[in-house]
Amino acid sequence: MKSKHPSFELYEAHRPGLLSYARQLSGDAVLAEDIVQDAWLLFARQSAGTIVSPGSYLRTIVRNLLMTRARRAKIERMSEADFDVVTATVADEAVSPEETAAARETMMRVMDALDALPARQAEAIRLYHFEGMKLREVAAVLGVSIPMVHGLITEGLAICNRIRKEGQ
């Protein structure tokens, strides 16, 4: 006779509760049975001795499997849908030419304001926002403290933000 997997007793003890839980989440008894069996297969791969709370762990596996299956079903429904029907319901996110022109004008005003700032302040903003440097890196480049860089950037951005708002 073949011996049982060491964690099978844990699974058997929790199976009724897992079936009930899976049925509640899915609303389908057949799917719940499949999910609980899949959960057992995943659970059996683990060392039962390393799992602190097997019941909670099994419930988490069941929930995750159901969520994965629901996502997959949604994707399958979308892929089976008629392209024209799907695209007709998608909002047009294109920006109008007027909005593009207004954004460019505002950006030019902000860049002009940035150029009008003191050199060290403008450089701090450029390094931080346009070059993606961290505050400590900007501080090292400018030879100042991190709080000083933070202050330079905060004050400079307040000025640029005020100019941006005036253009709206």
Automatic annotation (TrEMBL):
Domain RNA polymerase sigma-70 region intervals: 10-74
Pfam (any one): Sigma70_r4_2
Keyword Cell membrane among record annotations: no
Domain of life: Bacteria
Domain RNA polymerase sigma factor 70 region 4 type positions: 108-157
Alphabetical keyword list: Sigma factor, Transcription, Transcription regulation
Keyword Transcription regulation: yes
PANTHER family: RNA POLYMERASE ECF-TYPE SIGMA FACTO, RNA POLYMERASE SIGMA FACTOR FECI-RELATED
Family: Belongs to the sigma-70 factor family. ECF subfamily.
Protein name: Sigma-70 family RNA polymerase sigma factor
Organism: Acetobacter sicerae
